[in-house]
Amino acid sequence: AALPVAAQADATISGSVTTKYTNTGAVDTDAALKIATSEVLANGMTATATFNMLSGTNQGTATLAGDFGTITAGSIDADGAFQAGDVGGAVGDTRDSLTTGSSAYGVHFSGEAAGLTVAAQVNGNTGATGAVTAANATTYTAATTATTKSTQLSATYDLDGLSVGYAYASAKAATGATDYEGVEEAQSAFGVSYSFGDLVVTAGKQNLKASAS
After folding, report:
1. CB atoms within 10 A of CB 147
2. DSSP three-state, residue 45
3. Which of 175, 177, 153, 156 has its CA nearest to residue 165?
4. Whole-angstrom Cα distance, residue 173 to residue 150?
5. 166 and 82 Cβ atoms separated by less than 8 Å
6. Which residues are registered as beta bridge partners of 143?
């Protein structure tokens, strides 16, 4: 008897292998394998999944998009929901090192209707991805501290070139042992942005706990 077979989405596989040979005779080989797939479902929603198989940490990401908005689970931008509402640029991008941003494991949602865009996310309290140490500020090393659980909310409204936004985070967004700038505990931001022609004018204000660094 014929068995029902579910439709399968096409998958894209990419990666790299790097081998280094040092003058001491040591051989260091690093491999990365990425699998990505996307499928339009029968109800019109689009499901996307990305998995980094050999990157040293589990950094898979799954996305579901539809008329309701977009939900992303897995490895996400550690301050993505907050930055979406900081239209005045009052708070710098969260960084775990001097040169790189910060990613966390969690769930992110964004949706838009009639000019109003809302975003929310929860960062899990596990899965620290790494940090730069003071002793070696150019090397990305494994962190010994776990990611702080954080809830972020934001809302922006756009009307004829004018954008108004508000953002809030319950805890710091950095995932490493050392952080550089970025979102801190109980931080909020309010901002406006207005563009006319090639000129864009922005203004923003942030609020911090008295104990925040």
Report:
1. 25
2. coil
3. 156
4. 7
5. no
6. none
